[in-house]
Amino acid sequence: MSLKRFDLAGRAALVTGSSRGIGLALARGLGEAGARVMLNARDPAQTQAAAQALRNDGVEAEACAFDVTDPGQVADAIADCERRTGGLDILINNAGIQRRGPLLDAPEEIWAQVLDTNLTAVFRIGREVARRMAPRGKGRIINIASLMSEVARPGVGPYAAAKGGVKMLTRAMCVEWAPFGISVNAIGPGYFATELNAELVADATFDAWIRARTPAGRWGDVEELVGAAIFLASDAASFVNGQVLYVDGGVLAGL
Ligand code: NDP
After folding, report:
1. What is the tens place of the pLDDT at every residue in 222-238?
2. What is the pTM of this model?
3. How many Å lie between the centroid of ligand 1 and the Cα of residue 21?
4. In the chain, what are the domains?
5. Where are the beta strands (DSSP E) in the chain?
6. Residues 121, 16: contact at Cβ < 8 Å?
7. Is residue 117 lining ligand 1, measured as CB closer than 6 Å?
8. Ligand 1 pocket, residue 97 CB under 6 Å
């Protein structure tokens, strides 16, 4: 099979939450595969800086700062991205937050904040983008799920509930939007040492536990998520729809 099937030249992509961490790595990866990428985060200066860093490396990248939890900002930003790119071909719903603490003490505001950012925004942005993709008869949506779409750990109740929801929302989007030529899949990362996990990386007991619990014996490198994203965004995955691809060093394969 020709490697051209993985080529993203001529495609436009929006990656939410891409000023750092996993989102930035995925944006860079799509860009290196030929796509024009729109970077997003709440902080405009950091979003601009990330886009500039990609441009310095020859990637076609632009900034589009907005808050994924604000329906008005989302509607305006998607219209703006569509105008600037001539139409989005690829959406990666990656923006996410973590708020740790026992469920017994979880305040309503934390529950609402985590569910809104990690689940409702996936619906909100997915719907906004799919409304444009549907009349064009094509599009790729990749939602960033998690190991926590399948298993929980004490202290991450709202996050696990949201990520479980992302898995089912991915399937719901697939069954409704596949007839319009839209593929909707998810990537479920295992443990990656990003800012979101800074607390865990700094905890020697957790670090030792995760290395022992992961068959690969280590944390993932964000670069190791790029291949899955390029595959799901490309023609190579033309009949792959409604799936969650776990990239976790084998964690979910065993107890
Ligand atoms: P980081 O905290 O490193 O990055 C999160 C990004 O999202 C930043 O660019 C942040 O920028 C942006 N963001 C946060 N809230 C919003 C918002 N309301 N609107 C727009 N942008 C926002 O996280 P990771 O890279 O680790 O995580 C990325 C995704 O991967 C998340 O969905 C996470 O749940 C998932 N994941 C991560 C794992 C890991 O091991 N790291 C494991 C499994 C899943 P800003 O704050 O400026 O808005």
Report:
1. 999 999 999 999 999 99
2. 0.98
3. 7
4. 3-247 (3.40.50.720)
5. 12-15, 36-39, 61-63, 90-93, 139-144, 182-189, 244-247
6. yes
7. yes
8. yes
